[in-house]
Design a protein that fits this description.
Largest sheet of chain A: 2 strands, antiparallel
Oligomer: heterotrimer
Largest interface: B-C, 41 and 53 residues
Strand content of chain A: under 5%
Structural class of chain B: mainly alpha
Mean pLDDT of chain A: 91
Low-confidence stretches of chain B: 1-8, 312-331
Radius of gyration of chain A: 19 Å
Order of helices and strands of chain A: HHHHEEEHHHHEHHH
Largest sheet of chain B: none
Shape of chain A: globular
Number of strands of chain A: 4
Low-confidence stretches of chain A: none
Strand content of chain B: under 5%
């Protein structure tokens, strides 16, 4: 029983850390551009297909293939921002949301046309042996996922808190107008945010596809929506919140799948979200905003 | 100073009634004259369903000013409740359908009440994600319940609202739209709109904001439930996955393109956006791509400077609907 | 008995005592002024009176009804209406609808009669139109009642906000810096209007204002607030010459 619980905990950590990586993209973009980037989940899908193209069609070795994937996604994120979101910077937020939905549809149908609807099997590029600690088996993919996400989060935290570009990002998310007044290039900062967010999504996409080993055009939607929930759970706009929210969500999901019901696991995840928001209306680590009368 | 136009509520209602009768006459003419082929006649009921869905969602999003991403959840409740009634009942068609509509609407409204409660504590994007969550919870519950036949869904639902009974569907749609329009143009509707514009001021003039927020959710859910019943008896089969958040977003897209807070806009956008995928059927794989591109272009165009130069209004709805006065009052 | 009786009102935000031991008695028909330097807690007093904040201690009694602890909308129903320092109109609604919304509790009909448009609906709406126009006339806004509220110039928006508050049929009207952003002519007009509504609508007025011309021109009594406490009160001319008040505004 105890080993089972431990194994589920590790499973939860693995999916949770992937959610956390995706949630970081949501939360960073939300913090800076105050928009829900509904197309973010589809960047994962693009990442997975890019990896497939690099490995299976271009026959690149693992490392260049990963770099190729990350670059493709980061560039795509920036292009999307330039074409679809930038012209709407001062538009009502709902207009931007609908545009993001349009971009999401666009990416899905474009990959449907290019790669067709039939799922494509994919051979994992991660070949690490599983290890056994006290009867608990941890698969190689789990180890790699945990290591990669931990490193990514440490680098991101360092970048945000210690570098000049990172403090520019924090300034823009606090107050875009004021940041502009003190000479921060807001456009450049937003572009950078999208690039970083999409880069992280690419990493998440690679880890995700090595786990599930099957590609289809709508594969990004579900992890995307879960990661969005994770970002809100942690307090949208908060970077540590996204990490925490992702991991909590992954663990809850893994436990409810193993011990309660697979069918009800989504319902449980969303119920937890609703309950958390009722107790803490802005998530675990979100800032509470009250209107001054 | 502009001379003040006196409002003639009666005259306005008459124009609307005329519009309804004329559109009904046109549909009947096209149908009886055999001008519409099968592909298009099969669209009549889905269009009516989407009109009810869009107009009812507009009450929450356009008039109350809260973003809801769970409208398909209310629709699914109406659809399942209605379908279970007509499958298990043995009564004349009219009686069965009437009971299904009332029960479907009422149960959906009850869920609207339950979901309306957290609305009181939350707002903005947090509220949006909670409505999305509720939609997904309802979907998962439909999958796991025995009475709803799980993931396989319900089959052999009597086809009470296929295109042959378009008159009935048309009347129900017209009633729904008129009811919501009338609510909006009443003291209750003004209270709901004032919450959108400034909830603190609304509270300060003696209006119970919580009460009207919940009321908007209940009314909106009721009509979404009705739309669900019509949908169920049009397609004959129900699957929980039909009502995921993509369906909710589809309805939201109709509302936003039609113009927030414009009922006529919602109607026109519902007609166009329901028919568009069918019109693009020849393009097959490319039709979703085209739909996406059209969506992005419309949003960009709506908020571009070119558009501002062309018109004084910014949505399809306003093109046909309300006049906006951009003019400022001189001092 | 006095119209409004406030005893020992106070509120703390964390460790900060924003308002402390605030007392005021307002009689029917009074024109009362509340002044003080920026950050003295004047608007906080308004927020306490109207239920935006729940007071930590003290009591508020309006016309014999205890108000503290009641939600803001109930307090309005008890006869207290207010305007806001930063104007809060219903921007997307017309001038007329702004006032009609405030008539919500004055003219009623059920949800059912609004859906099926019973005669009750038409009668009530006609009645509302009439009442709203009457109030708008006082402020000279009746001719532009079809305009969107956000399209009005600043001074008119302030007037519309007062008209809206008046439509709730209050016994006591709280005005938060009604003359802010107005030019001297407009301020003069506003002073006449405030006197007019006091006399014709049978209400008392409590106002916060920085414009001393307005304060000395219409207020019959004054309270001066500094750091959340009353430092002077009584006859306006005496109060503004009080050395404590001058110190509070200008420093030592």
């Amino acid at each position: 029983m105890l080993t089972n619980i431990l194994e589920q905990l590790i499973n939860g950590l693995r999916t949770g850390s992937i959610y956390a990586l995706i949630a970081l993209g949501y939360t960073m973009v939300y913090g800076i551009a105050k928009m829900i980037n509904f197309a973010h989940g589809d960047i994962i899908m693009v990442g997975a297909y890019a990896l497939y193209v690099a490995v299976a069609l271009l026959h690149l070795p693992a490392i260049p293939a990963v770099i190729f994937t990350c670059v493709v996604c980061a560039v795509l994120g920036v292009i999307i921002e330039r074409i679809a979101y930038k012209p709407l910077r001062n538009a009502p937020r709902l207009a931007v949301l609908i545009t993001a939905i349009g971009v999401s549809y666009f990416l899905q149908s474009a990959s449907l046309i290019i790669f067709k609807a039939t799922p494509i099997p994919f051979q994992s590029i991660i070949n690490v042996d599983s290890i056994n600690i006290g009867g608990v088996t941890i698969s190689g993919i789990t180890i790699v996922t945990l290591v990669v996400t931990t490193i990514s989060m440490i680098i991101l935290t360092f970048f945000i808190n210690k570098t000049k570009a990172g403090s520019a990002m924090r300034a823009v998310s606090e107050d875009m107008g004021a940041a502009q007044l003190v000479g921060i290039n807001v456009n450049k900062t937003i572009t950078m945010t999208f690039a970083i967010g999409s880069f992280l999504a690419a990493v998440a996409g690679i880890l995700y596809i090595c786990q599930y080993q099957s590609l289809k055009p709508t594969m990004g939607a579900l992890p995307g929506i879960k990661a969005f929930v994770a970002a809100v759970l942690g307090g949208i706009g908060s970077i540590p919140g996204a990490m925490l929210g992702g991991i909590v969500l992954g663990i809850i999901e893994s436990f409810s799948k193993a011990f309660i019901s697979t069918e009800l696991s989504d319902a449980i995840v969303f119920s937890v979200l609703v309950i958390v928001l009722l107790v803490r209306p802005s998530g675990f680590l979100g800032k509470k905003k009250s209107e001054k009368v | 100073m502009e001379n003040l136009k006196k409002k003639f509520a009666g005259k306005k209602a008459l124009t609307n009634l005329l519009f309804i009768v004329i559109s009904y006459a046109i549909i009947t003419f096209l149908l009886k004259g055999g001008i519409l082929n099968r592909q298009y006649t099969s669209l009549l009921v889905p269009i009516a369903v989407n009109i009810i869905l869009a107009v009812s969602l507009n009450l929450i999003t356009g008039f109350l000013g809260e973003l809801s991403l769970g409208h398909a959840g209310f629709m699914s409740i109406g659809a399942y409740v209605g379908a279970l009634i007509t499958i298990n009942m043995d009564a004349p068609e009219v009686v069965e359908l009437a009971i299904a509509l009332i029960a479907g609407g009422a149960v959906a409204a009850f869920f609207g009440f339950i979901i309306g409660m957290p609305v009181l504590r939350l707002n903005g994007d947090y509220l949006a994600i909670v409505t999305l969550g509720f939609g997904e919870i309802i979907k998962s519950i439909l999958i796991s319940l025995e009475i709803t036949n799980g993931a396989k869904g319900l089959q052999k639902i009597p086809l009470y609202t296929n295109y042959k009974s378009y008159t009935l569907v048309f009347i129900l749609m017209a009633i729904s739209v008129i009811a919501i329009t009338n609510i909006v143009n009443s003291r209750h509707g003004r209270a709901i709109c004032s919450i959108r514009d400034n909830s603190i001021a609304t509270e300060s003039i003696g209006i119970n904001v919580s009460r009207f927020k919940v009321m908007a959710f209940v009314i909106s859910a009721f009509f979404a439930g009705i739309a669900g019943v019509l949908y169920a008896h049009n397609v004959g089969i129900l699957k929980p996955t039909t009502f995921d958040y993509n369906k909710s977003i589809e309805i939201l897209v109709i509302v936003v393109l039609g113009g927030m807070g414009s009922i006529r806009g919602s109607i026109i956008a519902a007609v166009i956006l329901t028919a568009l995928p069918e019109l693009l059927r020849g393009a097959d794989d490319f039709r979703m791509l085209l739909y996406a591109v059209v969506l992005i272009i419309i949003m960009l165009f709506n908020h571009s400077k070119i558009k501002e130069g062309l018109y004084n209004n910014n949505t399809i709805g306003k093109l046909f609907g309300k006049k906006t006065d951009k003019k400022k009052v001189g001092e | 008995m006095a119209l409004l009786e406030v005893n020992n009102l106070g509120i703390s935000f964390g460790g900060l005592r924003a308002v402390d031991n605030f007392n005021i008695t307002i009689e029917k028909g009074d024109l009362y002024g509340l002044i003080g330097p920026n950050g003295a807690g004047k608007t906080t007093v308004f927020n306490l009176l109207t239920g935006v904040y729940v007071p930590t201690d003290g009591s508020i009694v309006l016309d014999g009804v205890k108000l503290n602890g009641k939600p803001a909308h109930d307090i309005c129903k008890c006869g207290m209406a207010r305007t806001f320092q930063n104007i809060r109109l219903f921007d997307k609604m017309s001038v007329l609808d702004n006032v009609k919304t405030a008539l919500h509790n004055q003219v009623k009909y059920s949800l059912l009669s609004s859906i099926i448009r019973t005669p009750a609906y038409f009668n009530a709406e006609r009645n509302m139109d009439k009442k709203a126009i009457e109030i708008l006339k006082v402020f000279g806004l009746d001719r532009i009642c079809e305009y969107k509220a956000s399209n009005l110039p600043y001074g008119m928006q302030r007037k519309l906000e007062i008209a809206r508050a008046l439509a709730t049929n209050p016994k006591l009207l709280l005005l938060d810096e009604p003359a802010a952003g107005m030019n001297p002519t407009e301020t003069q007009e506003l002073m006449d209007m405030i006197r007019f509504i006091r006399d014709n609508f049978d209400i008392a007025v409590l106002l916060i204002e920085h414009d001393m011309n307005l304060v000395l021109g219409i207020c019959e009594q004054l309270k001066v607030l500094d750091y959340g406490r009353i430092i002077a009160e009584g006859d306006p001319v005496k109060v503004v010459n009080d050395p404590r008040v001058i110190t509070a505004y200008l420093g030592e």
